[in-house]
């Protein structure tokens, strides 16, 4: 009961700091009472902040292209709220679907966590993505050359992606109380299946086209 009360009363900013810099202890503390409301807020903030920055710079860059009709730029400005709303909806759907898949796999591998715990881990593991916002702002405000900007943002994205993957492994391990190997397997299994399905679909399309090409030439 003491663990649950501590998890419920944990400050939002302490939660963020704990996930980023003391992940194992933080996720272990949250396992009995996952703060899914705070996790949803984190997901909302991440999606909104990254969406605003990305769409703003896209609109600015698009409007500066020579020969672009000003009306198109106005349309993009008007569609800005709609695009943000769609980004939030898509992020929410992706959160629930990925959480459901990971929870099912975790249970099959002997995990003992709750669906709320898995969803909480999925949302909080994305916290390193918040560092993309200041990097993107600095790159644009300092007018970093395009090549250097691409390299810098690419490296930042790679680091935050790896950091998030590590947090996801730790979070699933602590929430479901199984080994780190099972946590890794929980994550890579759906990715592997997706890659195999994509390869099979691509090969099927390729073989179909190869079979149709001689037939079309004979006609």
Structure characterization notes:
This protein has 219 residues and is mostly helical. It has one domain. The protein contains 9 helices and no strands. Helix 4 packs parallel to helix 6, helix 4 packs parallel to helix 7 and helix 7 packs antiparallel against helix 8. It is globular and about 55 Å long. The termini are far apart. 21% of the residues are buried.
Topology:
Layout: H1 2-9, H2 12-21, H3 23-30, H4 36-63, H5 70-108, H6 115-124, H7 132-141, H8 146-176, H9 180-218
The rounded distance between the terminal residues' Cα atoms is 77 Å
Strand content: under 5%
- Order of secondary-structure elements: HHHHHHHHH
How would you describe the oligomerization state of the chains in this entry?
A: single chain
Determine the structural class based on helices, strands and strand pairing: mainly alpha
Question: Main beta sheet, described?
Answer: none
Tell me the domain tally: 1
Total number of helices: 9
Query: Average pLDDT value?
Result: 84
Q: How much helix, percentage-wise, in residues?
A: over 70%
Uncertain runs = 1-8
The beta-strand count equals: 0
Taken from the alpha-carbon principal axes, the silhouette is globular
Rg from C-alpha positions?
A: 22 Å
Task: Give a brief rundown of this model.
With 219 residues, the protein is mainly α. The chain has helices at 2-9, 12-21, 23-30, 36-63, 70-108, 115-124, 132-141, 146-176, 180-218.
């Amino acid at each position: 009961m003491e663990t649950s009360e501590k998890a419920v009363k944990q400050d939002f900013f302490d939660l963020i700091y704990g996930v980023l810099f003391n992940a194992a202890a933080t996720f272990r503390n949250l396992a009995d009472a996952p703060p899914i409301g705070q996790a949803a807020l984190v997901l909302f903030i991440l999606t909104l902040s990254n969406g605003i920055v990305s769409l703003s710079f896209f609109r600015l860059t698009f409007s500066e292209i020579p020969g672009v009709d000003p009306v198109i730029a106005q349309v993009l400005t008007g569609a800005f709220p709609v695009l943000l709303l769609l980004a939030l909806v898509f992020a929410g759907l992706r959160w629930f679907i990925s959480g459901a898949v990971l929870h099912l796999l975790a249970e099959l591998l002997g995990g003992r966590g709750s669906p709320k715990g898995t969803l909480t881990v999925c949302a909080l593991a994305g916290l390193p993505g918040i560092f993309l916002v200041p990097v993107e702002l600095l790159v644009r405000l300092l007018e970093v050359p395009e090549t250097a900007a691409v390299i810098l943002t690419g490296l930042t994205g790679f680091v935050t992606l790896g950091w998030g993957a590590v947090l996801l492994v730790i979070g699933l391990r602590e929430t479901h109380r199984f080994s780190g190997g099972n946590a890794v397997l929980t994550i890579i299994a759906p990715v592997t299946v997706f890659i195999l399905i994509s390869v099979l679909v691509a090969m099927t399309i390729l073989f179909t086209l190869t079979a149709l090409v001689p037939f079309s030439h004979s006609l």
